Amino acid sequence: MSLSKQLAEYVVSLKYDDIPEDVVEFTKLCILDYFSSAIAGKDMPPIQKIEEMVEVLGGNEQASLINGGKSSVANAALLNGASSHIVEQDDIHKSSIIHAATVVIPAALAVAEWKKLDGKDLITAVVAGYEVCFRIGEAVSPSHYYYWHNTATCGTFGSAAAVAKLLGLSVEQTVHALGSAGTQAAGLWEFIEDGAMSKQLHPGKAAMNGVIASMLAEKDFTGASKIMEGRRGFFEAMSDDYDAAKITEGLGHEFKIMENSFKIHASCRHTHHAMDLVSDLAKQQDLDPDAVDKVEVGTYQVAINITDDEDPQTIYQGKFSLQYCTALALVKQSGSLDTFTEENLWDGTVRELMQKVEVYVDDEVDAAYPEKWGANVKVHLTNGETVELSTEYPKGDPENNVSPDELYEKFMVLSKGIDESRAEEVAENIMTLEDISDLSMLFPHNMAVK
Amino acid sequence: MSLSKQLAEYVVSLKYDDIPEDVVEFTKLCILDYFSSAIAGKDMPPIQKIEEMVEVLGGNEQASLINGGKSSVANAALLNGASSHIVEQDDIHKSSIIHAATVVIPAALAVAEWKKLDGKDLITAVVAGYEVCFRIGEAVSPSHYYYWHNTATCGTFGSAAAVAKLLGLSVEQTVHALGSAGTQAAGLWEFIEDGAMSKQLHPGKAAMNGVIASMLAEKDFTGASKIMEGRRGFFEAMSDDYDAAKITEGLGHEFKIMENSFKIHASCRHTHHAMDLVSDLAKQQDLDPDAVDKVEVGTYQVAINITDDEDPQTIYQGKFSLQYCTALALVKQSGSLDTFTEENLWDGTVRELMQKVEVYVDDEVDAAYPEKWGANVKVHLTNGETVELSTEYPKGDPENNVSPDELYEKFMVLSKGIDESRAEEVAENIMTLEDISDLSMLFPHNMAVK
Q: Nearest residue of B to residue A205 by CA position?
């Protein structure tokens, strides 16, 4: 049986009543965390540009846009997907290297709202979408990740799976949806060299492409039956070391969404290990940056590939500079969204300390990746002392988890741009999602100001 | 200077008045030939399914749909792109292995109509779009083509370039447009194993994605500046043997659109060499299929990869079976659209002869590919005679070209499904395109029935 068919059977057979209560609760936190980032990002320039384009193109009013108003489900998936991937605080699944929320949730939300489905349907679709894209990401990582933005490429399958579930597609139709998803999968890392806005285009387009794939499949529009394992399929074309067994091991018996990590710092996840360590150290010891002679950060190769940048020129590039993030976290004792400002980008103390941060590949840490996204940090002080610190799990990983209260707090910080009473209502509705029948009530602009 | 910037400078500087008259005339034939295939395909199931989805999604009425009515430029590019790539008679550029019409022309048409531009603008944009995608296809072929559908992947750049020209983007904006195009480039050959409808989704999405790329670039939405040659860019990720020099050699001094080939037979281009040879032979000698003992077809490796199929089950699969196409052309002495019928798919004589067709890689022919798409054919007769035939250029190649009259005849055959007077008017308007100011008048449904 093809891999697509096995995934399709899983998607079709998944029922809300079979999802354990802790998984339901965790999925609601994933949706809350999606909105944290989507609301924080909605007024930023790349998102405004996409919003303007969506408005020019137009579309039937099917689904709420994060910036207000409604448009087609394709447009809603595009805009709401892009919006959640800009402040660099959206969730991450380590072993597949996927930010699933920013692709799966906007696609599922748009279609569920359009079809007047309820909170339980949305939760079920999100669980299915995460499961599918995490498995595909695990199968092709890490080699796929060198060129490809897994969130976009593998995310397309997750979007299609979630939408297939919501549209009630048959197994055969779901296979076609996965085929059409895989053959649209795109998103090259090259943009990172320029800090270009492709970062937001990728998840938006992945969400939109998954919606298109499943809407077409509903009409029996056919796709490749072996889009993953076929000789000219996704695995062979886009990965050097794929492991097809990851698609099916334990499928139907586990809930991979529970492996999802949440981000507390507002930068690339590959910088969090060091930020956790140095901000904790700085807080505990009330460390003066001037007392630091050198900081050595040893981590895994992929982190170096993505975040070795000695001289970021924009806030955005700063979030992808391990040197800058490490210095910032040590000086400001925090990595929250409001520390990544233009002022702090050019802060003399941070800039000076940044020159003293050396990053390198630590073979032991690298060998444990991607199961563990760790770092060894040595802080050499001017008094001759050296403090050694290490972590295997940045904060927010399942092994070092954050509480619902912390995620609620994060939501309230990230949704500062909207009316507070509306933000509170959004959070309340999400945390009681299984009782919500009108899913437009997850969008702040659809609520009255109290 | 980056490759994108060099292409962008070419696109921005190209002027209608600098295009020689023979190139203008040829470009109009490309547009006529686009409409041949688009009209012939418009009512077929995959296109109807996309049309239904486009209608459900909705969009502002900016550009004509090939099936009637208007929708957004993104939707028009999607539908009108898909429609022209189903009867397997759209144009092909050998050395880039791209069917450019089905991607570049619908995108350019949609945006030109929307912006109320004229025929000269459209011609200029099409010339630019062909130039860009042909060069990119040449740079990555043939290795890229094993996994990737060049028409879709490289075509996305061509769509973006044509639209960038029409929107009057700056050099910098055009670089961003190419970046956003390349990072959306997708389309795996895996669908061919199932004869799936992805074949039509690919060019439609490529056209649409190029439109999105340039619309966003107009708003200064940024993309990778070195999307082609960057270390995590299109070349490195999606090709084993790219030649970056192809992008710039002779750029601005030649018109690659003149290298375009037209298809007379309604099947995959990789079957045409043998079809030309055996149909001519059968006509000349009034050959009885029963008199044939064996047919050996020696051709290039890529033709074998794509078209070695001993037992096609659908008309569509038949168009991708070298064995079937060779037998059909010998028996019916033609390969036109009306020979690819369900009746002929199961025709006893064709099926019997097909068993006698042996296909193999001819090393000499293979070495000349992709500059020459040739074949050596040996027809062994039951009387012991053997007829040897060979060609380097299937009919419709620049080296073995068809006349404007033949392309007009093809257009009239392929547009049989619409009112004849409308078809004639479409053709007349296209052949006087430099004088046309209302581009909606290229669409049959916008004309009165005479």
A: B184
Instruction: Select from B29, B92, B26, B27 the least CA-distant residue to B394.
Output: B92
Strand extents, DSSP E, A227-285: none
- SS3 assignment, position A197: coil
Using a CB-CB distance cutoff of 8 angstroms, which residues of chain A are in contact with residue B186? 183-186
Nearest residue in A to B152, CA atom: A184
Model confidence pLDDT, tens digit, residues B362-383? 999 999 998 899 999 999 999 9
* Contacts A197 to B, Cβ<8 Å: 216, 221-223
Contacts of B355 (CB under 8 A, 6+ apart): none
Whether B183 sits inside 8 A of A194 (CB atoms) is no
Distance of alpha carbon B359 from alpha carbon B345, whole angstroms: 19
Interface-testing mutation among B54, B115, B191, with chain A (most A C-beta atoms within 10 A): B191
Number of continuous H segments (helices) and E segments (strands) in chain B? 20, 6
pLDDT of residue B153: 98
The sheet carrying B292-299 orders its strands as B357-361, B292-299, B375-381, B386-391
**What domains can you pick out in chain B, each with its CATH number?**
3-259 (1.10.4100.10), 269-394 (3.30.1330.120)
Coil/strand/helix, residue A64: strand
Residue B187 touches partner A, C-beta closer than 8 Å: yes
Contacts of B57 in chain A (CB under 8 A): 59-60, 62, 72-75, 215
Pairing of the two strands A292-299 and A375-381:
antiparallel
pLDDT per residue as tens digits for the range A190-240:
999 999 999 999 999 999 999 999 999 999 999 999 999 999 999 999 999
